[in-house]
Amino acid sequence: MKSDTIHSVQALRGLAVFLVVMFHFREDLSKTYGEVADLLFINGSIGVDLFFMISGFIAYYVYVNENSGLSSSKIFLVKRLCRIIPPYFLVTLMVAGNSC
């Protein structure tokens, strides 16, 4: 069975998640761990840039490795939107529900 997963890209995704989460919690961490946490994660927002780079790479990778041209790009886009939109609306509803 052939796997199209590129493990180094998955590791970069994990690093990007870690950086973004720690960036958001750096103030809370600095209360416990002092300035060390703030210094370590002050540039954690770079994880967002890393996500954009990974997304561009994956889009190119799928485009190059699929031989069906534009139709494969459409399939990729539909699959991606089906993965992104439901969690987006779920989290949006949860946050909106808690803001009242």
TrEMBL record:
Q: Where are the transmembrane segments?
A: 6-25, 37-63
GO cellular component terms, alphabetically, are: membrane
Q: Select a single GO molecular function from the record's annotations and give it.
A: acyltransferase activity, transferring groups other than amino-acyl groups
Where in this chain does the record put each Acyltransferase domain? 7-96
Q: Which InterPro entries match?
A: Acyl_transf_3_dom, Acyltransferase_3
A Pfam family found in this protein is Acyl_transf_3
Q: Which domain of life is it from?
A: Bacteria
What are the entry keywords?
A: Acyltransferase, Membrane, Transferase, Transmembrane, Transmembrane helix
Q: Which GO terms describe its biological process?
A: polysaccharide biosynthetic process
Quote the PANTHER family the UniProt record gives: ACETYLTRANSFERASE, ACYL_TRANSF_3 DOMAIN-CONTAINING PROTEIN
Q: Under which name does UniProt file this protein?
A: Acyltransferase
Q: Which organism is it from?
A: Serratia symbiotica
